[in-house]
Design a protein that fits this description.
The structure holds two protein chains of two kinds.
Chain A (H helix, E strand, L loop, with lengths): L1 H10 L21 E3 L8 H6 L5 E6 L2 E7 L8 H5 L3 E3 L14 E7 L12 E3 L14 H18 L3 E7 L5 H9 L11 E3 L8 E5 L2 E2 L3 H10 L5 E5 H6 L9 E3 L9 E3 L6 H11 L9
Parallel strand pairs in A: 7-8, 7-9, 9-11, 11-13
Antiparallel strand pairs in A: 1-4, 2-3, 3-5, 5-6, 10-12
Chain B lengths: L10 H10 L4 E8 L2 E6 L4 H12 L2 E10 H4 L1 E10 L4 E9 L5 E3 L9 H11 L2 E3 L47 E6 L11 E7 L3 E7 L7 H5 L4 H9 L6 H15 L6 H29 L3 H22 L8 E2 L2 E2 L5 H26 L2 H7 L7 H7 L3 H5 L7 H4 L20 H24 L18 E7 L4 E9 L3 E8 L1 H12 L8 H8 L3 H5 L1
The chains are: A alpha/beta, B alpha+beta.
Chain lengths: 290, 534
């Protein structure tokens, strides 16, 4: 007993002060990629090496629309190896409330040799906190949904119980979610607890891609979670299906199966990114997209 | 018959096999010194396996099928046998005519074949004859009649919604017997799977496992991806073994084109494999303590694990070592500062880990819960072909790092801890010993880090090459088998995670134990669901 106490005392406090201080990541860490949209000459090489289609383009007549989708990005950095207009940052806090806010796109004039003219005709960057560009299909239902979510944020702002649901992940996201419970990140200091049952939960932290064999279990877990409830989709696979996409065995993104409140990109998102996403869903932080 | 391209150690084994089964063997193909393909008739496979088990002390490490109807007019069934003493693999290949799509089960002689045979049945529609429990395994009961790994099945086929029967578990009956269903969504932060306990009072009479909840079509997906993307997919087979799986994949493709990664790259690969072993072993040691209510030890373990994950990020840009592996070597070299950071980490971890182990060893209530709990007897482990940590705690004296040196393990001597009681305590002890060994190995690798390039171009991959890649991951041996296709792609990639073979052992280890001890027994195996389900 004395040995245990002695070891704890000699270890001291190891908990990060995040979010009061910036995330403690290595300068070598790969976070969100950044494209120099104004000087980008050719989307083809980076799109070819991108394993998940996070960088993609479509040509229509004389125009090329190119886009970067952080919801698909695994931060592997292969694009930056082949394209000097792309660089990897160590920024890990990329969570957003809307899926569309993870996408940046630009329209260029296409040249005869297949490259595109720069600067672009237009760049569409998501603005933090602004409404989605796509109008809701059913405005009154959407409005009701938003007011419920607002209430949830007010309710859960002080304390939150989370049920983690692995709906098909490779277990990479789980490694990092478990790290949240370590003394280094210590989510309990925010009043956040991981609970054993969806019936005790305010939030589902869902990793994906949602497999065919887990779809029903995920729906049932969602239904078992009392209203109001929050859903956070974790990782490239949770946000978009990731490298697995949609195939005979997977449904892809979490929001293909249940409604999602916050998207946390990364492969896997590190614990700072996860905390950022969870706190964003609780209404304690603002989105830093764009 | 003489086989000139076979390693001298495998030669007598192959010669004797060819002599005894001359009528059943079509040809022998040796693309690599330690990898012999024996093309045989389907009827002689049971005899060949029995002979290799008896005469060469071989063991079945992988069993899979390949749809070669387009090129050879038949399905091919492969049995990969490791001959540890001869440091080589004998791979039996038998054709199955599409007109008679069936094969005979080996499970009565080789229990390790159980799930793997049923997988072949589910994914290829090859009927299993003589299996005592031929029910679906990889595809759940409510799936329509589809065979996803046949070439005429499209990866993105949209299957109709769930219908049909739910899984019927085997009934366990008797006075006072009741069932405890658990999962697929578990209470902890872990992967999904279903466990059905049949208990009478506290002790468990029978445990039925139902896996493949996270089946993601991975092996099929490999066939549609360009080769470099395959490395990234391999990283997502089992998240905590990202680097081991990616390296096994690279190893297979590199062997298929007969290119070896440069020596510096191989050393960096070995160091990363040891880092992966370190963070997982330390996490497991802590988690085992948590499951017997010694949370303080886990807090220290998680603190150490976090230090390793941050070192991983500093060395490779990703905490789980993702993005580091690539075909022909590794992507990132380490400058003097990074090497120093790694050396400092190892120097710090040594006393920290010793102190953690002391904390656990001084806790008699913890040891009391671990000793004689969840015993996997050595003879059961041998029959089931249990590998890795669980195997070595039950007398299995094998480690690919020592017996089949890959990456840069030929440059060091790897000490393999082996215990014989097979309880949770010994599975913990194997991890403790392996952590110490890993720290020592990293030091040895860093002390003699060779100069030179970290990557070679493997060029365009020619079609119809076959190769087996292998890596001793932290959990056990990982195999990736590839057959190449035109256009720098793969016609087949078979992924074998050690978990697939070890899961049935959990059902044996739990027998007679009480349900509240299941979490700690399960954690002492810590098998990968995603690696199993793919």
């Amino acid at each position: 007993m004395l040995g245990i106490l002695g070891k704890s005392l000699s270890t001291g406090i190891v908990t990060t002060r995040y979010p009061a201080t910036p995330p403690e990541v290595s300068p070598h860490a790969r976070g969100r990629p950044e494209i120099d949209w104004a000087n980008w000459k050719d989307a083809r090489p980076s799109a070819a090496v991108c394993p998940t289609g996070a960088i993609s383009f479509q040509d229509h007549a004389s125009q090329r629309q190119a886009q970067l989708d952080l919801g698909k990005c695994t931060f592997c950095g292969l694009c930056a190896e082949v394209d000097p207009c792309i660089r990897m940052t160590s920024v890990c806090e990329c969570s957003t409330r809307r899926r569309a806010d993870l996408v940046t796109s630009a329209t260029y004039l296409l040249k005869a040799d297949g490259t595109h003219d720069h600067p672009p005709c237009s760049v569409t960057r998501p603005k933090p906190g602004k409404a989605a560009t796509v109008p809701p299909s059913n405005p009154s239902f959407e409005a009701l949904g938003h007011s419920v979510q607002e209430r949830a944020r007010r309710l859960f702002g002080r304390s939150l119980h989370i049920r983690e649901v692995d709906a098909g992940s490779c277990n990479g996201c789980e490694v990092e979610i478990v790290a949240l419970t370590s003394p280094v990140y210590d989510v309990e200091r925010f009043g956040i607890h991981f609970v054993a049952s969806p019936r005790h939960a305010d939030m589902l932290l869902v990793t994906g891609p949602v497999t065919r064999n887990m779809e029903l279990a995920l729906r049932k877990t969602y239904q078992a979670t009392p209203d109001p409830r929050l859903v956070v989709a974790v990782g490239a696979c949770g946000c978009s299906g990731g490298i697995f996409g949609v195939n005979y065995a997977t449904r892809g993104a979490v929001d293909a199966v249940i409604p999602v409140d916050v998207y946390v990109p990364g492969c896997p998102p590190n614990p700072f990114a996860l905390l950022h996403g969870i706190l964003l869903a609780m209404g304690r932080l603002e989105s830093q997209a764009g | 018959m003489s086989f000139t391209h076979v390693s001298p150690e495998l030669q007598p084994i192959v010669e004797e096999m060819a002599r005894r089964f001359s009528a059943g063997i079509h040809s022998v193909y040796t693309p690599h010194l330690n990898e012999v393909y024996v093309h045989a008739r389907l009827e002689v496979i049971p005899g060949l396996c029995a002979h290799l088990y008896r005469a060469a002390n071989a063991r079945l490490v992988s069993l899979f099928a390949d749809d070669a109807r387009q090129t050879d007019g038949a399905f091919h069934l492969y049995y990969v046998l490791a001959v540890d003493a001869a440091h080589g693999f004998v791979i039996l290949r038998a054709p199955i005519a599409p007109a008679t799509p069936q094969f005979t089960s080996l499970v009565n002689a080789i229990p390790a074949a159980n799930w793997q045979e049923r997988e072949v049945q589910d994914w290829f529609g090859l009927k299993l004859v003589g299996h005592p429990n031929p029910r679906r395994c990889a595809l759940h009961d409510d799936w329509p009649e589809v065979y996803p790994l046949r070439k005429d099945f499209n990866l993105t086929t949209e299957l109709p919604p769930f219908q049909g029967e739910r899984h019927k578990f085997r009934a366990v009956e008797g006075e006072g017997v009741f069932q405890v269903p658990v999962g697929p969504v578990h209470a902890g932060i872990i992967e999904p799977g279903h466990f059905l306990f049949s208990v009478a009072g506290e002790p468990v009479l029978y445990l039925q496992l139902r896996m493949f909840y996270v089946h993601k079509g991975t092996e099929k997906l490999f066939e549609s991806l360009p080769l470099p993307h395959g490395v990234r997919l391999a990283e997502s087979i089992s998240g905590d073994s990202s680097f081991a799986h990616a390296t096994a994949f690279c190893h297979a493709v590199e062997r298929a084109v007969c290119v070896q990664a440069p020596v510096r790259a191989r050393v960096l690969r070995s160091v990363c494999l040891e880092l992966e072993r370190l963070y997982n072993h330390i996490a497991d040691i802590g988690a085992i303590c948590t499951d017997v209510a010694f949370v303080t030890a886990n807090m220290h373990a998680m603190r150490l694990k976090e230090r390793i994950l941050r070192a991983n990020e500093h060395l490779t840009g990703n905490r789980l070592l993702r993005g580091m592996a690539c075909l022909g070597g590794v992507r990132f070299d380490w400058d003097a500062g990074q090497q120093q950071a790694l050396a400092n980490l190892v120097a710090d971890l040594k006393p920290e880990f010793a102190s953690l182990v002391q904390l656990i060893e001084n806790s008699s209530s913890t040891l009391d819960r671990l000793e004689t709990t969840g015993i996997l007897r050595p003879e059961v482990a041998r029959d089931l072909g249990v590998v890795g940590i669980a195997g070595r705690a039950s007398g299995f004296d094998h480690d690919l790092r020592r017996d089949f040196p890959h990456a840069a393990y030929d440059r060091v001597k790897v000490n393999v801890p082996v215990y014989h009681l097979g309880d949770v305590k010994h599975r913990l002890q194997v991890r403790v010993d392996e952590v110490r060994e890993s720290l020592s190995l990293i030091e040895q690798f860093l002390a003699r880090l060779p100069d030179g390039p970290i990557r070679v171009d493997i060029g365009e991959v020619p079609p119809d090459r076959v190769a087996l890649g292998y890596v001793e991951g932290w959990r056990g041996e990982i195999f990736h088998w590839v057959r190449t296709a035109p256009g720098n792609r793969l016609a087949r990639c078979k992924v074998k995670d050690p978990s697939l073979q070890n899961w049935p052992a959990l059902s044996e280890a739990i027998l007679g134990n009480i349900v509240p001890d299941f979490p700690v027994i399960n954690k002492s195996f810590n098998l990968s669901y995603s690696g199993t389900d793919r």
